[in-house]
Amino acid sequence: TKQLSALDARRLSDGHPPISDSQSKQLTVAVMNRLFGLGRLQGYIDDPQWTDIHANGCDQVWLLRNDGTVVEGEPIADSDAELIELIQTQARRGRSEQRWDPASPELDMRLPSGDRLHAIAWVSGRPSVSIRRHNFDIGHLKQLIGMGTVSESLYHLLRAMVAARFNVIVAGGTGAGKTTLLRCLLNEVPADERIITVEDSLEIGLEHFAHLHPNHVDLEARDANLEGVGEFPMHRLVRSGLRMQPDRVIVGEVRGAEALPMMLAMSQGNDGSMCTIHADSSLGVFTRLQMYMAMTPERFDVDVTNLMIANAVHFVVHLARLDTNERVVTSVREITGADGPMVNSNEVYAPDETGRAMPRFGLSDGSLG
């Protein structure tokens, strides 16, 4: 306030009118963003119309709208060096202090807004920053009907799957809406259950629904610190979560060695557990899990992995992003068993000509019972 008053005094002495209320507000926001946020980049983060923000250097900014259109934005810094300094400052303020420098050229962190930031430099021509924003206003399955993500009948099936404590894998490509659907499924879990979430970078955001989950603990993987110690990878976090007496264990994204403890959790009493995984179809989830299990120190072969899948997973729910930029559930697959190199399954919902999931086959007697 004192600085603004001094600025007005200087303008008046030079024969200019004082700055307007709107200019004063804009200047205040800019200063606060520079001191405590990400400078000009913060303005895009605070604007709800953008779902993704990509900066290729300080002056090449691309923004993705909610409707899927891409537009070019204004520069977010005066130089690449200033952009790097902004990101480094934010990294030091995070939940666990992170480094971003030539020795650690990649940064993956959660912003105070709950959004996910990825940055890379020194191994690229210019520093590159990508931000994926999360709409925490979407947190209930009922909302997905109006958005066209699920049909009315599929909504009731998904609710029943959660209530019956089936183990569910939510699959899809990048940006398909896996985390949003997982959040909506979790918000169907009764409030008296203890939920442990395990994530590489916090995205599910159950803290935004604390009234629905009073007994909830979130765990986040951590890289080594500046001294090269303190690393806590995902597979260790999953094992730690299992020791915390959870009713359900939730893994934000399975993409490596954490596949083993996750499937063990699902098959050893933690019914109702869930995770997400990258796959281009509901059937492709099995191949992806086989690959991850072959990468573990135990190097499980396909037959053993399939038996574990059959004993651990009840349903796979697959999402995709259509050409219209709509995010929809395309398939729901019920796991019914394993036979050597094959996982037996029943596609109870399959994509129609538009790509949306529609009823195909009935549930097995085992699921109905």
In short:
The protein is α/β, with parallel strands linked by helices and 369 residues long. It is 32% helix and 24% strand. Helix 8 packs parallel to helix 9 (259-267), helix 9 crosses helix 11 (302-312) and helix 10 (284-294) packs across helix 11 (302-312).
Keywords:
six-stranded antiparallel β-sheet, nine-stranded mixed β-sheet, 369 residues, 15 strands, alpha/beta
Report on this structure:
The chain has 369 residues and is α/β, with parallel strands linked by helices. 32% of the residues lie in helices and 24% in strands. It has twelve helices and 15 strands. A nine-stranded mixed sheet has the order 9-8-10-11-7-12-13-14-15, with helices on both faces. It has a six-stranded antiparallel sheet with strand order 3-2-1-6-5-4, with no helix packed on it. Strand 5 and strand 6 form a beta hairpin. The longest helix has 16 residues, at 21-36.
Itemize the secondary structure elements and their pairings.
Blueprint: H1 2-13, H2 21-36, H3 40-45, E1 50-56, E2 61-65, E3 70-73, H4 80-92, E4 106-110, E5 116-120, E6 128-132, H5 141-146, H6 152-163, E7 168-172, H7 178-186, E8 195-199, E9 216-220, H8 234-242, E10 248-251, H9 259-267, E11 274-278, H10 284-294, H11 302-312, E12 315-321, E13 327-339, E14 342-351, E15 357-359, H12 365-368
Helix pairs in contact: 8-9, 9-11, 10-11
- Rg: 23 Å
Q: What's the pLDDT, averaged over the residues?
A: 88
Q: What is the overall number of helices?
A: 12
- Basic shape: globular
Helix percentage range: 25-40%
Structural class: alpha/beta
Q: Strand fraction band?
A: 15-25%
Order of helices and strands: HHHEEEHEEEHHEHEEHEHEHHEEEEH
Model regions low in confidence, pLDDT < 50 over at least 5 residues: none
Describe the main β-sheet briefly: 9 strands, mixed
Strand order, biggest sheet?
9-8-10-11-7-12-13-14-15
Termini Cα gap: 68 Å
Count of beta strands:
15
